[in-house]
Amino acid sequence: MKGRTVLITGAGTGIGAACARRLASEGANLVLVGRRREPLEVVAGETSGLVLAGDAASSSDWAHFIPAIVERFGGLDGVLANAGGHGMGRATDTRDEDWQAAMRANLDSAFYTARACLPLLAERRGSLVLMASIAALAAGEDVCGYTTAKHALIGLTRSLARDYGPQGVRVNAVCPGWVRTPMADAEMQPLMKHYGENLDAAYARVTAEVPLRRPASPEEIASICRFLLSEEASIITGASLVADGGSSIVDVPTLAFGRH
């Protein structure tokens, strides 16, 4: 990755920050995009990245971002569309504004990022990685907006891979399961309250039927993103790489037999 320029959205915390640190450790130039400047500045202090504070789902913000990137680095070799958010509730409990917020955070942010950056990636035959989820492959309970948006990201990945492959651009998705990030920590709070457990116990509970029996660390997901962004993955495009400790391979209807 030495000397390559990579843009990361949602770069201030969690998986995005872990990816920034991993890529910087290998000599990559970084562009750090996020809505909150303060955490971006912290990551930039560790990685010497260029901070661009704004909304990845805003075309007007990208109109300012792209010239700044070209002026500083001349172009892009890789993009990680990592920004995302929640989308909780069943369909009949989801207000218009909740639905729109879920689509904007999880799908629009990736689309607007891709649309703005693809011309630069095509110039250098670069790589685009979209951060999906195992919610792109199966439906959890009461997460209609999030599930729908993440499913759509797989379609976006395939469409972009098909259209821009002839220009040398590779496009892939990463589908993590539980990852110990601030966002996931917040999702553990209801379990912790209900069962009177600490955070470690809550994660153990949600991964009790996962073959590896644990969540991922942000650094583990960063390693996968680094691989897809590098030339080591030069023949891989249109793929959805699942990183969930094996949870998506479990035959759910047989779980009751294992409890006897």
Task: Explain the layout of strands and helices.
Blueprint: E1 5-9, H1 14-25, E2 29-34, H2 37-47, E3 50-53, H3 59-73, E4 78-81, H4 96-124, E5 127-131, H5 144-164, E6 170-176, H6 182-195, H7 199-206, H8 218-229, E7 240-243, H9 255-258
Defining traits:
260 residues, alpha/beta, Rossmann fold, seven-stranded parallel beta sheet, 9 helices, 7 strands
If you had to describe this structure to a student in words, what would you say it looks like?
- The protein has 260 residues and is of the alpha/beta class.
- It is 48% helix and 13% strand.
- The chain contains nine helices and seven strands, in the order E-H-E-H-E-H-E-H-E-H-E-H-H-H-E-H.
- It has a seven-stranded parallel beta sheet with strand order 3-2-1-4-5-6-7, sandwiched between helices.
- Strand 1, helix 1 and strand 2 form a beta-alpha-beta unit.
- Helix 3 runs parallel beside helix 4.
- The mean pLDDT is 95.
State the gist of this model.
With 260 residues, this protein is an alpha/beta fold.
What helical percentage do the residues reach?
Answer: 40-55%
What is the distance, rounded to the nearest whole angstrom, between the alpha carbons of the first and last residues? 50 Å
CATH superfamily: NAD(P)-binding Rossmann-like Domain
Order of helices and strands: EHEHEHEHEHEHHHEH
Strand content: 5-15%
Structural class designation: alpha/beta
What radius of gyration results from the CA coordinates?
18 Å
Poorly predicted spans: none
Describe the oligomeric state of these chains in a short phrase. single chain
CATH level-1 class: Alpha Beta
